[in-house]
Amino acid sequence: MSQLYRGDQYDWVAVCLKYLLFIFNFLFWVGGAAVMAVGIWTLIDKSDYLSLLASSTFAVSAYILIFAGGLVMITGFLGCCAVIREQRSCLSAYFSCLLLIFLIELVAGVLAYVYYQRLSEELKQHLNHTMTENYAQPGKNHITHAVDRLQQDFKCCGSNHSSDWQYSVYISSQEAGDRVVPDSCCKTIALQCGQRDHPSNIYKVEGGCITKLEQFLADHLLIIGAVGIGVACLQLAGAALTACFIYLLYKEEEEEFSDM
């Protein structure tokens, strides 16, 4: 009688775990799509700005998220198959995939955190040099386009101040045509509008473009971190459920073997 009761109890627990794992895998799949979407959004939304950064850490974090998101979506589908088949080998492989993805997201989170700590210093050291030395120079079209878009999107002029442009190679050249700032500094862009640097004509923001770009990148890194932590917590819950289900199947197999 006790063995029959224990068998019914195992069946009830197994059914509950099965449905919980199905719900988890659906949420896991949605979470994977969210992680991938955040990674793609990070690269596409302001991809021009990546060329203004000294290191590729920010871009690498986004690529890791895209890879992890795709892996999560595939793993979520495989997890459903493993639960349906109720095979310990498939569930063990699924459990291993969860831990692997967790480690990948952990690496992305660490990279994002490390980069967040040194973001301000990197921008201060690198952005001014990039804007003054590379703007409108031969073979630097991508830098020129990125700086123009940066100044228009964030309504700023110069790395720290509009006066930074007086040290620019471009402004010192004949190509500038008596401009004191690039035309992208103007509130209303027109040909050679950069010849006048009055506040009514150009953007004069305290802190310049560095402050604006730093805030933008910091916000993106926080979003990357929040999504990564959320999905990682979901993975740990799924790993715990999967381990319980594997143990339950093991106990059922053990009992069936002992009854033979």
From TrEMBL:
It comes from the Eukaryota. Gene3D superfamilies: Tetraspanin. The chain crosses the membrane at residues 20-44, 64-84, 91-116, 221-250. GO terms for cellular component: plasma membrane. Keywords: Membrane, Transmembrane, Transmembrane helix. The keyword Membrane applies. It is a multi-pass membrane protein. Its main location: membrane. It is found in: Membrane. The keyword Transmembrane helix applies. Belongs to the tetraspanin (TM4SF) family. This is Tetraspanin.
